[in-house]
Amino acid sequence: MKQISLCAILILLVSHGAWAEGDGNKQRKILRTSQMVLKEIQKSPDQNIPMNLISKAKAIIIFPTMFKGGFFLGARYGKGIASVRSSEMGKWGPPAFLYTTGASLGFQIGAEAVDLILLVMSQRGIEGLLSEKFTLGGDIAISAGPVGRHAEASADIFMQGEIYSYSRSKGIFSGISLKGTVIASDSDANLAYYGHPYTAKEILLTGQVRKVPESGKQFMKIFNKLAPPSFSKRK
User: How many domains does the chain have?
Assistant: First the structure.
């Protein structure tokens, strides 16, 4: 019975994701909502990400509205973006599109839509982004990041991890865990947006994107304001 319930949840979540393919319109919406999520979280003094932490992040991943549901067995599905910070100027680069799936065991009842932000702090974390897929809590360690006005002074003690997570709930759910979440490159979305089947590596690291759409330029401009580099990276 539990297996049937989990299968039903996965079918519902993945079928929702199937609607997200198109000629780039859906990808532009993901970019806009990702900007909105980061902007709203950073404007909240009690839930924002400490600037001295986000300014040192090597990459950022955002899943605006990741769907989760379950009855003891849970499932999750979502589409989002990743951007890598330039090692020279500290500026955010063109976005690569991703999707996430996962299943979990344990006490969990309900359904939820979650805004998820992941800060990638290490080179190993970036290398995970470039793989075909990687698993949070398995291939790469993940921890809940510090939040709020009182976390700023002590955020430096959190600089030992590889990925820090920040989430904002839009529903009701009991028993939330990101362990076992799989993140993979969304090749169909990258093709729809850029008009070329770029890989995550080509977009995020090797600078193969020759023409960034206007919405991508706007995305980079906004993120560079919301999450500027640390002073040591500025020229």
Answer: 1
